[in-house]
Design a protein that fits this description.
With 304 residues, the chain is α/β, with parallel strands linked by helices. The protein has helices at 55-62, 85-95, 111-120, 126-139, 155-167, 185-202, 213-218, 261-264, and strands spanning 13-24, 27-39, 44-48, 70-75, 78-79, 96-100, 173-177, 205-209, 221-226, 229-234. The structure holds adenosine-5'-diphosphate. Residues 22, 24, 29, 31, 49, 51-57, 304 line the site of adenosine-5'-diphosphate (ADP).
Length: 304
């Protein structure tokens, strides 16, 4: 009899020969030209490439914010071409978390209410939303900052709130667009360590656009793009760090003071950031970060 191992888990996202062409003033702009890739549960991927190579377009597609012009894109087992806009919004809310360079938190809303927001669209009662948001903030080391507003927090703290907001819905995939781009290097390292810890311990797949070679080198898998195609995909066969995948809320990342180990040693003197007043919260009614436009906000000054 053939040996039976654990049943392989289906891919978190599968793109097969995906193209995306924009029509601009009667001109066709081929932003993606036949991209095939699979994001496995628990993956840790850095997406790199020069400006204009198609990274943002690909992230929009992987996040269910846009559909391919041609090819097959399956997110969480669902072919996006067969879904209506509301179904896409639900799929995003259930499957994908987003983190941005500029945080995009509601600046005058408390950390706990920022984090609780995506749960509104799950039909979860207010009290439970707050409890889950508070627990998630504890997991990112901000259990002591529940009622601070983003404009009272450092850049590193704001990004941790944004990470908590992205993960409070227990998504399968976290898409991060230059998550350390607005942070000084020590704070950026701490945020990256937190993302890595969440990836390793909870099994959420992490797909991160970065221009920073050192950041990219830390990922288990590097996908390089140029002119709308994937030119290399290294480490794709590597096993994900997490072999069992408990929900994010199933166990704490740390004990003691509620701060993850990686953050206990992080510098406390993070610079105050003036940002945190992004164009809107990312996991709004549509379950996605796009507000009315259906587009991810471009990063001010970002190179993507
Ligand atoms: P990157 O994120 O790597 O900088 P993008 O995905 O933003 O690359 O862009 C890929 C190509 O598609 C570029 O040539 C860009 O000018 C074009 N492009 C991106 N968005 C649009 C759009 N909304 N309309 C027309 N062209 C676009």
């Amino acid at each position: 009899m053939a040996p039976t191992g654990p049943t392989p888990r289906p891919p978190a996202i599968e793109a097969v020969d995906v193209s995306r062409t924009y029509e601009l003033d009667g001109v066709s702009v081929p932003a993606l030209r036949g991209v095939s890739l699979t994001v496995q549960p628990g993956d840790y991927v850095a997406l790199v490439g020069p400006s204009g190579s198609g990274k943002s377009t690909l992230m929009h597609l992987l996040g269910g914010l846009d559909r391919p012009t041609a090819g097959r894109l399956v997110i969480g087992g669902r072919n996006v071409n067969s879904l209506s806009a509301p179904e896409m919004a639900t799929l995003r809310n259930e499957t994908i978390g987003f983190v941005f360079q500029a945080f995009h938190l509601l600046p005058r809303t408390s950390a706990v209410d920022n984090v609780a927001l995506p749960l509104v669209y799950r039909g979860i009662g207010a009290r439970q939303r707050r409890e889950r948001a508070a627990a998630m903030l504890g997991r990112v080391g901000l259990g002591h900052r529940l009622h601070h507003r983003p404009n009272q927090m450092s850049g590193g703290e704001q990004q941790r709130v944004a990470i908590a907001r992205a993960l409070v819905t227990d998504p399968t995939v976290l898409l991060a667009d230059e998550p350390t781009g607005n942070l000084d290097s020590a704070t950026g390292q701490a945020v990256l360590a937190l993302l890595e810890q969440l990836n390793a311990e909870s099994g959420v797949a992490l797909v991160m656009v970065t221009h920073d070679r050192e950041v990219a080198a830390r990922a288990r898998r590097q996908i390089a793009m140029r002119d709308g195609v994937v030119v290399s995909d290294q480490g794709a066969e590597a096993r994900p760090a997490a072999t069992t995948v408990p929900g994010l809320h199933d166990r704490p990342l740390s004990d003691g003071d509620g701060r993850p180990e990686t953050l206990r040693t992080a510098p406390s003197a993070e610079p105050r950031s003036a940002s945190g007043s992004g164009p809107g919260h990312p996991s709004g009614g549509s379950g996605g970060p796009t507000g009315a436009t259906g587009r991810l906000p471009r990063q001010a000054g970002g190179a993507s």
